[in-house]
Design brief:
By secondary structure, this protein is mainly beta. The protein is 0% helix and 49% strand. β4 and β5 form a beta hairpin.
């Protein structure tokens, strides 16, 4: 059974940091490009960051550029998202996703598998 399970969300003060993890099972992430998206209350889901198969390139959403780092450990079937200098506008549910083809890594519809999300709340 294919699963992506996010963890690491929680409540943090503005300016703080959080590290989210996404554990994959039922498939091997080494065959997939991986992404993180987020959805704030009342807003559409948006691209945060994505990483290519061999970590050769990372794509960043403009709202988080310079504040987040994404990494992948293919041996552990795991991806992480390190978020720093968090702002109240970063409050959202964060989703991990896997893309098996050559579609745009920023496009939601390109992804094959999704996790259920982990909630991040940044207080001011």
């Amino acid at each position: 059974q294919v699963q992506l399970v996010e963890s690491g969300g929680g409540l943090v003060q503005a300016g703080g940091s959080l590290r989210l993890s996404c554990a994959a099972s039922g498939f091997y992430i080494e065959n997939y490009r991986m992404g993180w998206f987020r959805q704030a209350p009342g807003k559409e889901r948006e691209f945060v960051v994505g990483i290519e198969w061999s970590s050769s390139y990372t794509h960043y959403g403009e709202s988080v550029r310079g504040r987040v780092t994404m990494s992948r450990d293919n041996a552990k079937n795991l991806v992480d998202l390190q978020m720093n200098s968090l702002k109240p506008e970063d409050t959202a549910v964060y989703y991990c996703a896997a893309l098996g083809g050559h579609g745009s890594i920023q496009r939601i519809s390109a992804y094959d598998y999704w996790g259920r999300g982990t909630e991040v709340t940044v207080s001011s």
